């Protein structure tokens, strides 16, 4: 099954009163365990990479592995940037393959949060990417992630939530109603009446951060009031840590592989437990039918130049690779020269877009217009452009077309 649109996935959960887990991963062990659990449960799943964890791994390398694993999975998968620090973080995540992003401005004043989130929404929606906003503040209590969320909880205002959703256009909303990041101390008192009123006011999928440690009936109550995504990490980290400590006690001289033996199984068991509890188990097939496949678009240009030295063409290509790769939704930019003698076309561009929506937003982007109007089109008068999706995506609406577009 392919990667799928996260917006479609969460809307399906919201309409059908279950929640999808957004499971933070910090290593290949977490990635493999989470996907194994999803496949065992036949559950949709969101692979979440939190910017607060980037100190533990190289984000670019982790994204390459995450996307590869997601595309070969047998259940619907989305990939999400969690707690991004800035607009630039969101652009980078999208260009590396995330199809959901969250830039956390919940610590800011309401007007600043709205303004920052709106900018992210405008950029991400032009790339086809879903955006999670957060209103209210979920603090940390204890555990390895708690220090990254200092201060006190600030509960989400119902009135502000309604205004926030209208003004920002977010696709889902993280709310603060009593959960905490890290480990809970005792049983939390959740303000489910507040949650119900927020759900009645905004009518979009709601998200819970700090999902570890609630009672079964509390999870069910959250889901009944519109929660369609639950972020979950601390319990997975604790399960992994417990297994490592047990291995060390059993054999104090064991090496790395001995220490992590069975760690994936411990993580997988906890993921499976909550997938069944939250109602996403067994939903994979119906989710796939309801969701658009998430498939990149290839923008190909073949062209000739007249009365221009090869050195100038190469300089133009180098400048284009530098400029175009920074545009939101552009995954890679490749330039090439024909290897055959006397080809019909001598030069080419291969530009990969994260989603078909980028075809239009890229064409109108100021960097593209500057490059195409000033450097490319004046010398590449003989050219052909094609935008296409991979044939294994089976798109409902064919996107292939020959036209002068994008860098053409």
TrEMBL record:
Residues 297-388 form the Stress-response A/B barrel domain. It holds the Pfam family F_bP_aldolase. It comes from the Bacteria. GO terms for biological process: carbohydrate metabolic process. PROSITE patterns: S_R_A_B_BARREL (PS51502). GO terms for molecular function: aldehyde-lyase activity; zinc ion binding. SMART domains: Dabb (SM00886). Coiled coil: none annotated. NCBIfam families: cbbA. PANTHER family: D-TAGATOSE-1,6-BISPHOSPHATE ALDOLASE, D-TAGATOSE-1,6-BISPHOSPHATE ALDOLASE SUBUNIT GATY-RELATED. This is Fructose-bisphosphate aldolase. It comes from Sulfuricaulis limicola. The lineage of its organism: Bacteria, Pseudomonadati, Pseudomonadota, Gammaproteobacteria, Acidiferrobacterales.
């Amino acid at each position: 099954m392919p990667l799928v649109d996260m917006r479609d996935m969460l809307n399906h959960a919201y309409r059908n009163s279950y929640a999808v887990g957004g499971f933070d991963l910090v290593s290949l062990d977490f990635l493999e365990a989470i996907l194994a659990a999803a496949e065992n449960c036949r559950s949709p799943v969101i692979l979440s990479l939190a910017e607060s964890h980037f100190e533990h791994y190289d984000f670019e390398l982790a994204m390459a592995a995450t996307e590869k694993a997601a595309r070969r999975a047998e259940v619907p998968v989305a990939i999400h940037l969690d707690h991004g620090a800035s607009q630039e973080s969101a652009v980078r995540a999208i260009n590396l393959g995330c199809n959901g992003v969250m830039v956390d401005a919940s610590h800011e004043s309401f007007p600043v949060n709205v303004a920052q989130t709106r900018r992210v929404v405008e950029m991400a929606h032009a790339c086809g990417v879903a955006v999670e906003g957060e209103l209210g503040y979920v603090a940390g209590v204890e555990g390895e992630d708690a220090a990254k969320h200092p201060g006190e909880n600030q509960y989400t205002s119902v009135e502000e939530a309604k205004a926030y959703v209208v003004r920002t256009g977010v696709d889902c909303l993280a709310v603060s109603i009593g959960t905490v990041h890290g480990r809970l101390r005792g049983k939390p008192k959740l303000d489910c009446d507040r949650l119900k009123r927020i759900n009645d006011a905004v009518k979009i999928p709601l998200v819970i951060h700090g999902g570890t440690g609630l009672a079964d009936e509390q999870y069910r109550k959250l889901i009944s009031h519109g929660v369609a995504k639950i972020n979950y990490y601390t319990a997975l980290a604790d399960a992994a840590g417990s297994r490592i400590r047990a291995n060390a006690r059993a054999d104090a001289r064991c090496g790395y592989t001995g220490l992590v033996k069975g760690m994936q199984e411990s993580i997988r068991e906890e993921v499976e437990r909550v997938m069944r509890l939250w109602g996403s188990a067994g939903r994979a097939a119906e989710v796939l039918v309801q969701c658009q496949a998430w498939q990149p678009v290839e923008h190909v240009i073949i062209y000739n130049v007249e009365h221009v030295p090869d050195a100038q063409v190469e300089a133009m290509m180098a400048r284009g690779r530098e400029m175009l790769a920074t545009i939101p939704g552009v995954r890679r930019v490749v330039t090439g020269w024909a290897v055959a003698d006397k080809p019909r076309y001598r030069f080419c561009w291969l530009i990969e877009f994260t989603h078909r929506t980028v075809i239009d937003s890229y064409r109108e982007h100021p960097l593209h217009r500057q490059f195409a109007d000033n450097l490319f089109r004046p010398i590449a008068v003989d050219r052909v452009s094609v935008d296409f999706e991979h044939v294994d995506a089976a798109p409902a609406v064919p996107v292939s077309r020959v036209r002068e577009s994008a860098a053409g």
